[in-house]
Write a structure and sequence with these properties.
This protein is α/β, with parallel strands linked by helices and 264 residues long. The chain is built from 13 helices and 8 strands. Bound molecules: 3-hydroxypyruvic acid (3PY) and magnesium ion. InterPro entries: Aldolase/citrate-lyase_domain (IPR005000), HpcH-HpaI_aldolase (IPR050251), Pyrv/PenolPyrv_kinase-like_dom (IPR015813), Pyrv_kinase-like_dom_sf (IPR040442).
Protein backbone atom coordinates (compact mmCIF):
# COMPACT_ATOMS: atom_id res chain seq x y z
CA UNK A 1 0.00 0.00 0.00
CA UNK A 2 1.43 3.34 -1.04
CA UNK A 3 -0.72 5.89 0.80
CA UNK A 4 -2.85 6.30 3.86
CA UNK A 5 -6.53 5.59 3.40
CA UNK A 6 -8.67 7.98 5.34
CA UNK A 7 -12.35 7.55 4.67
CA UNK A 8 -13.07 11.05 3.50
CA UNK A 9 -9.69 11.33 1.75
CA UNK A 10 -10.63 8.42 -0.51
CA UNK A 11 -12.01 10.50 -3.39
CA UNK A 12 -8.86 12.62 -3.45
CA UNK A 13 -6.74 9.50 -3.38
CA UNK A 14 -8.47 7.70 -6.25
CA UNK A 15 -8.37 10.89 -8.34
CA UNK A 16 -4.70 11.52 -7.56
CA UNK A 17 -3.31 8.98 -10.03
CA UNK A 18 -1.26 7.18 -7.37
CA UNK A 19 -3.08 3.98 -8.41
CA UNK A 20 -2.66 0.59 -6.78
CA UNK A 21 -5.95 0.56 -4.86
CA UNK A 22 -7.53 -2.81 -4.04
CA UNK A 23 -11.13 -3.10 -2.84
CA UNK A 24 -13.25 -5.80 -1.29
CA UNK A 25 -16.46 -6.68 -3.14
CA UNK A 26 -19.37 -7.90 -1.04
CA UNK A 27 -22.67 -9.31 -2.28
CA UNK A 28 -23.72 -11.19 0.88
CA UNK A 29 -26.11 -8.70 2.49
CA UNK A 30 -24.86 -8.81 6.05
CA UNK A 31 -23.22 -5.69 7.49
CA UNK A 32 -21.07 -7.94 9.70
CA UNK A 33 -19.41 -9.26 6.54
CA UNK A 34 -18.22 -5.70 5.96
CA UNK A 35 -16.94 -5.56 9.52
CA UNK A 36 -14.86 -8.73 8.99
CA UNK A 37 -13.49 -8.08 5.49
CA UNK A 38 -12.68 -4.46 6.31
CA UNK A 39 -10.08 -5.73 8.82
CA UNK A 40 -7.93 -6.90 5.88
CA UNK A 41 -5.60 -4.50 4.02
CA UNK A 42 -8.23 -3.39 1.52
CA UNK A 43 -8.26 0.28 0.53
CA UNK A 44 -12.06 0.27 0.24
CA UNK A 45 -15.15 -1.94 0.29
CA UNK A 46 -17.80 -2.16 -2.46
CA UNK A 47 -21.32 -3.38 -1.65
CA UNK A 48 -22.77 -4.99 -4.78
CA UNK A 49 -26.49 -4.19 -4.96
CA UNK A 50 -26.78 -5.15 -8.67
CA UNK A 51 -26.02 -8.87 -8.46
CA UNK A 52 -25.56 -9.09 -4.70
CA UNK A 53 -28.63 -9.10 -2.47
CA UNK A 54 -28.31 -5.98 -0.32
CA UNK A 55 -31.34 -3.83 0.35
CA UNK A 56 -31.03 -0.14 1.14
CA UNK A 57 -31.38 -0.60 4.92
CA UNK A 58 -28.72 -3.29 5.24
CA UNK A 59 -26.43 -1.33 2.88
CA UNK A 60 -26.76 1.78 5.08
CA UNK A 61 -25.71 -0.28 8.11
CA UNK A 62 -22.91 -1.90 6.05
CA UNK A 63 -21.56 1.55 5.21
CA UNK A 64 -21.45 2.30 8.93
CA UNK A 65 -19.61 -0.97 9.64
CA UNK A 66 -16.99 -0.11 7.02
CA UNK A 67 -16.54 3.34 8.52
CA UNK A 68 -16.19 1.79 11.98
CA UNK A 69 -13.24 -0.18 10.59
CA UNK A 70 -11.78 2.96 8.99
CA UNK A 71 -12.63 1.98 5.42
CA UNK A 72 -14.47 3.93 2.71
CA UNK A 73 -17.51 2.04 1.42
CA UNK A 74 -18.81 2.37 -2.15
CA UNK A 75 -21.95 0.78 -3.53
CA UNK A 76 -22.81 -0.61 -6.95
CA UNK A 77 -26.47 0.24 -7.50
CA UNK A 78 -28.99 -1.94 -9.34
CA UNK A 79 -29.41 -1.19 -13.05
CA UNK A 80 -30.73 2.36 -13.61
CA UNK A 81 -31.56 2.84 -9.92
CA UNK A 82 -30.30 6.39 -9.58
CA UNK A 83 -32.73 7.09 -6.70
CA UNK A 84 -30.76 4.57 -4.63
CA UNK A 85 -27.52 6.31 -5.64
CA UNK A 86 -28.64 9.47 -3.79
CA UNK A 87 -29.88 7.48 -0.80
CA UNK A 88 -26.58 5.60 -0.47
CA UNK A 89 -24.63 8.87 -0.55
CA UNK A 90 -27.04 10.16 2.12
CA UNK A 91 -26.08 7.09 4.18
CA UNK A 92 -22.36 7.93 3.91
CA UNK A 93 -21.16 6.00 0.85
CA UNK A 94 -17.88 7.34 -0.52
CA UNK A 95 -18.84 6.54 -4.07
CA UNK A 96 -21.43 5.03 -6.36
CA UNK A 97 -20.78 2.61 -9.22
CA UNK A 98 -23.59 2.55 -11.80
CA UNK A 99 -23.80 -0.50 -14.09
CA UNK A 100 -24.29 -0.36 -17.85
CA UNK A 101 -23.99 3.37 -18.48
CA UNK A 102 -24.34 3.17 -22.26
CA UNK A 103 -24.93 6.75 -23.37
CA UNK A 104 -24.34 10.38 -22.52
CA UNK A 105 -27.96 10.74 -21.41
CA UNK A 106 -27.59 7.86 -18.93
CA UNK A 107 -24.31 9.34 -17.68
CA UNK A 108 -26.01 12.73 -17.19
CA UNK A 109 -28.94 11.15 -15.30
CA UNK A 110 -26.44 9.38 -13.04
CA UNK A 111 -24.47 12.59 -12.39
CA UNK A 112 -27.71 14.47 -11.74
CA UNK A 113 -28.62 12.06 -8.89
CA UNK A 114 -25.16 12.00 -7.31
CA UNK A 115 -23.95 15.63 -7.48
CA UNK A 116 -25.38 18.79 -5.94
CA UNK A 117 -25.85 21.95 -8.01
CA UNK A 118 -24.23 23.21 -10.13
CA UNK A 119 -23.03 19.78 -11.38
CA UNK A 120 -26.29 17.92 -10.74
CA UNK A 121 -29.54 17.99 -8.82
CA UNK A 122 -28.89 15.71 -5.86
CA UNK A 123 -31.63 16.36 -3.33
CA UNK A 124 -30.80 17.37 0.23
CA UNK A 125 -30.98 14.89 3.14
CA UNK A 126 -27.51 13.49 4.08
CA UNK A 127 -28.35 12.92 7.76
CA UNK A 128 -26.22 9.79 8.22
CA UNK A 129 -23.42 11.15 6.02
CA UNK A 130 -23.20 14.27 8.21
CA UNK A 131 -23.16 12.06 11.34
CA UNK A 132 -20.34 9.99 9.84
CA UNK A 133 -18.26 12.89 8.55
CA UNK A 134 -18.94 15.30 11.39
CA UNK A 135 -19.53 18.06 8.83
CA UNK A 136 -22.06 20.86 9.22
CA UNK A 137 -24.77 21.14 6.54
CA UNK A 138 -22.95 24.09 4.94
CA UNK A 139 -19.62 22.28 4.86
CA UNK A 140 -21.15 19.01 3.63
CA UNK A 141 -22.90 20.83 0.78
CA UNK A 142 -19.68 22.60 -0.14
CA UNK A 143 -17.53 19.45 -0.19
CA UNK A 144 -19.78 16.49 -1.11
CA UNK A 145 -19.31 16.76 -4.89
CA UNK A 146 -15.54 16.53 -4.40
CA UNK A 147 -15.48 14.02 -1.54
CA UNK A 148 -17.69 11.39 -3.16
CA UNK A 149 -17.21 9.79 -6.57
CA UNK A 150 -19.66 8.84 -9.34
CA UNK A 151 -18.30 5.95 -11.39
CA UNK A 152 -19.90 4.86 -14.68
CA UNK A 153 -19.60 1.23 -15.73
CA UNK A 154 -18.47 0.60 -19.29
CA UNK A 155 -19.43 -2.95 -20.26
CA UNK A 156 -21.37 -2.97 -23.53
CA UNK A 157 -20.63 -2.19 -27.19
CA UNK A 158 -22.78 0.95 -26.96
CA UNK A 159 -20.77 2.12 -23.96
CA UNK A 160 -17.50 1.46 -25.79
CA UNK A 161 -18.70 3.55 -28.72
CA UNK A 162 -19.79 6.36 -26.38
CA UNK A 163 -16.87 6.04 -23.91
CA UNK A 164 -15.21 9.37 -24.79
CA UNK A 165 -18.49 11.30 -24.53
CA UNK A 166 -19.39 9.53 -21.26
CA UNK A 167 -15.98 10.45 -19.79
CA UNK A 168 -16.56 14.08 -20.81
CA UNK A 169 -19.77 14.38 -18.76
CA UNK A 170 -19.28 16.78 -15.82
CA UNK A 171 -19.88 14.90 -12.60
CA UNK A 172 -18.67 11.54 -13.89
CA UNK A 173 -15.44 11.08 -11.92
CA UNK A 174 -14.22 7.81 -13.36
CA UNK A 175 -15.18 4.58 -15.08
CA UNK A 176 -15.43 0.98 -13.93
CA UNK A 177 -15.05 -1.74 -16.54
CA UNK A 178 -17.09 -4.94 -16.19
CA UNK A 179 -15.01 -7.50 -18.08
CA UNK A 180 -17.62 -10.28 -17.89
CA UNK A 181 -20.40 -8.29 -19.53
CA UNK A 182 -17.84 -6.82 -21.91
CA UNK A 183 -16.77 -10.32 -22.99
CA UNK A 184 -20.41 -11.30 -23.58
CA UNK A 185 -20.85 -8.14 -25.68
CA UNK A 186 -17.67 -8.71 -27.69
CA UNK A 187 -18.66 -12.31 -28.47
CA UNK A 188 -22.27 -11.36 -29.31
CA UNK A 189 -23.48 -13.53 -26.45
CA UNK A 190 -21.39 -16.60 -27.33
CA UNK A 191 -19.38 -16.71 -24.11
CA UNK A 192 -18.40 -15.15 -20.82
CA UNK A 193 -14.59 -15.00 -20.76
CA UNK A 194 -13.39 -11.92 -18.87
CA UNK A 195 -9.67 -12.74 -18.83
CA UNK A 196 -8.78 -12.97 -22.55
CA UNK A 197 -6.35 -11.11 -24.82
CA UNK A 198 -9.34 -9.61 -26.67
CA UNK A 199 -10.77 -8.14 -23.44
CA UNK A 200 -7.28 -6.99 -22.38
CA UNK A 201 -6.97 -5.00 -25.62
CA UNK A 202 -10.19 -3.12 -24.80
CA UNK A 203 -9.08 -2.59 -21.17
CA UNK A 204 -5.81 -0.99 -22.32
CA UNK A 205 -7.71 1.25 -24.74
CA UNK A 206 -10.07 2.39 -21.96
CA UNK A 207 -7.18 3.14 -19.57
CA UNK A 208 -5.62 5.33 -22.30
CA UNK A 209 -8.93 7.16 -22.87
CA UNK A 210 -9.27 7.76 -19.09
CA UNK A 211 -5.77 9.24 -19.01
CA UNK A 212 -6.67 11.51 -21.94
CA UNK A 213 -9.79 12.77 -20.13
CA UNK A 214 -8.20 13.04 -16.67
CA UNK A 215 -10.55 10.39 -15.25
CA UNK A 216 -9.64 7.38 -13.12
CA UNK A 217 -10.12 3.76 -14.19
CA UNK A 218 -11.49 0.87 -12.11
CA UNK A 219 -12.07 -2.77 -13.01
CA UNK A 220 -13.33 -6.07 -11.64
CA UNK A 221 -10.65 -8.75 -11.22
CA UNK A 222 -11.88 -12.28 -10.63
CA UNK A 223 -9.09 -13.17 -8.18
CA UNK A 224 -5.90 -11.83 -6.61
CA UNK A 225 -3.57 -12.77 -9.47
CA UNK A 226 -5.84 -11.16 -12.04
CA UNK A 227 -6.13 -8.06 -9.83
CA UNK A 228 -2.32 -7.81 -9.80
CA UNK A 229 -2.20 -8.00 -13.62
CA UNK A 230 -4.86 -5.30 -13.88
CA UNK A 231 -2.94 -2.99 -11.53
CA UNK A 232 0.19 -3.55 -13.65
CA UNK A 233 -1.87 -2.72 -16.74
CA UNK A 234 -2.52 0.71 -15.19
CA UNK A 235 -5.91 0.55 -13.48
CA UNK A 236 -6.23 2.85 -10.46
CA UNK A 237 -8.64 0.67 -8.47
CA UNK A 238 -9.26 -3.06 -8.78
CA UNK A 239 -11.35 -5.80 -7.22
CA UNK A 240 -9.46 -8.97 -6.21
CA UNK A 241 -12.43 -11.37 -6.36
CA UNK A 242 -15.86 -11.34 -4.75
CA UNK A 243 -16.73 -12.27 -1.16
CA UNK A 244 -18.39 -15.52 -2.22
CA UNK A 245 -15.32 -16.67 -4.15
CA UNK A 246 -12.95 -15.68 -1.31
CA UNK A 247 -15.14 -17.48 1.24
CA UNK A 248 -15.32 -20.66 -0.80
CA UNK A 249 -11.66 -20.69 -1.78
CA UNK A 250 -10.72 -20.16 1.89
CA UNK A 251 -12.93 -23.12 2.83
CA UNK A 252 -11.56 -25.28 0.02
CA UNK A 253 -7.97 -24.48 1.07
CA UNK A 254 -8.73 -25.43 4.71
CA UNK A 255 -10.38 -28.72 3.71
CA UNK A 256 -7.52 -29.60 1.36
CA UNK A 257 -4.97 -28.84 4.13
CA UNK A 258 -6.86 -31.02 6.61
CA UNK A 259 -7.05 -33.94 4.14
CA UNK A 260 -3.36 -33.56 3.25
CA UNK A 261 -2.29 -33.72 6.92
CA UNK A 262 -4.75 -36.56 7.66
CA UNK A 263 -3.25 -38.63 4.85
CA UNK A 264 0.38 -37.91 5.81
C1 LIG B 1 -18.75 -7.47 -15.10
O1 LIG B 1 -17.64 -8.04 -15.18
O2 LIG B 1 -19.58 -7.44 -16.02
C2 LIG B 1 -19.10 -6.81 -13.87
O3 LIG B 1 -20.11 -6.15 -13.80
C3 LIG B 1 -18.21 -6.98 -12.67
O4 LIG B 1 -18.90 -7.71 -11.71
MG1 LIG C 1 -21.39 -6.35 -15.40
Amino acid sequence: MTGATTIDGFAKRIRSGEGGLISAWIGIPDPLFVNHLAQEAFDAVVLDMQHGVWDIGSAAVGIGQGRLAGKPVLARIPLGDFASASRLLDAGASGIIAPMINSVSEAKAFAKATKYLPLGERSWGPTLAMNHTGLSATKYLATANEQTVAIAMIETRAALDAADEIMRVDGIDGIFVGPSDLSIALSDGANVAPDTAQVDGVLKHLIARCRAHGKFACVFGSNGERAGELLKMGFDFVIAGADTQQLRSGAATAIAAARRVQAS
